[in-house]
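> forwarded from #structure-qc
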């Protein structure tokens, strides 16, 4: 059996069409319920921070418990999250307000806040699927030796509910895989035990994503082969490539050139210009 693990946000869905609304709702909640400042103040701080990040994206990361889990420019939702994270962390008054709102934070208070905003406000929106998503999923389901799985950091119910709108046969969801969670005490059993993957002179990716690795290892335990398809590199793509699992990067309007260049150099890597190209790649694996 070949299990095709498809990332959800940004791969099956067109997150670039939804990020503006997610940001708008998140900023409104921040202003009214968390920071208790005007919406105009928060919007201005957000835009100023976003411009600063995009001026030097290799210097800014999505950070969880002080660990760098992704570069800020790898995804539309990621850029939104890192913008809010940087904006909140850089203002002591904002940080204090966030700490008061999340006294029992699972991660650092800012990461807990931005996770809350992302999951809350993406769950409230009906997903905008990429045009090729329904037919591509139907093709995968129809293949007797292929099982499609949907990968997400979100809880299963959000993803399953949106997939149900496509009127497909049931697709398993690998939810809450925490690709953003690093375990500094874990040594990867691949990449010669090296915890970091050097992409180029400006980009290095931390591979110590134990929970994500365990999720993939569980799917391989029955002897199945895996292949992963996603729109970003650091979160879902780097670990499979380093672990000998084929990986296809979906090139989107926001995909950075450095991600494309790295995947193109990898023997197990493939760059897809459209999700509709996936069946051709699957037949070649």
């Amino acid at each position: 059996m070949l299990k095709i693990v498809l990332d959800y946000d940004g791969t099956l869905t067109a997150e670039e069409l939804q990020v503006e609304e997610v940001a708008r709702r998140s900023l409104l909640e921040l202003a009214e319920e968390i920071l208790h400042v005007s919406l105009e103040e928060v919007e201005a701080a957000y835009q100023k921070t976003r411009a600063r990040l995009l001026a030097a994206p290799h210097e800014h990361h999505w950070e969880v418990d002080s660990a760098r889990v992704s570069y800020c420019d790898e995804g539309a939702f990621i850029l939104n999250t890192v913008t809010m994270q940087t904006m909140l962390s850089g203002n002591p008054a904002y940080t204090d307000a966030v700490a008061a709102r999340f006294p029992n934070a699972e991660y650092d208070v800012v990461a807990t806040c931005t996770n809350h905003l992302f999951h809350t406000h993406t769950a409230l929106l009906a997903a905008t699927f990429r045009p090729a998503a329904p037919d591509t999923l139907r093709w995968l389901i129809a293949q007797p030796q292929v099982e499609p799985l949907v990968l997400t950091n979100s809880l299963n119910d959000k993803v399953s509910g949106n997939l149900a709108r496509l009127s497909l046969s049931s697709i398993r969801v690998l939810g809450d895989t925490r690709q953003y969670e690093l375990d500094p005490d874990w040594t990867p059993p691949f990449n010669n035990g090296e915890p970091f993957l050097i992409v180029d002179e400006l980009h290095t990716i931390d591979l110590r994503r134990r929970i994500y690795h365990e999720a993939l290892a569980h799917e391989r335990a029955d002897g199945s082969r895996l292949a992963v398809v996603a729109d970003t590199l650091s979160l879902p793509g780097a670990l499979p490539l380093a672990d000998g699992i084929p990986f296809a990067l979906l090139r989107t309007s926001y995909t950075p050139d450095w991600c494309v260049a790295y995947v193109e150099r990898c023997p197990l890597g493939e760059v897809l210009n459209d999700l509709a190209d996936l069946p051709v790649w699957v037949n070649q694996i």
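QC bot note: The radius of gyration is 19 Å. The mean pLDDT is 95.
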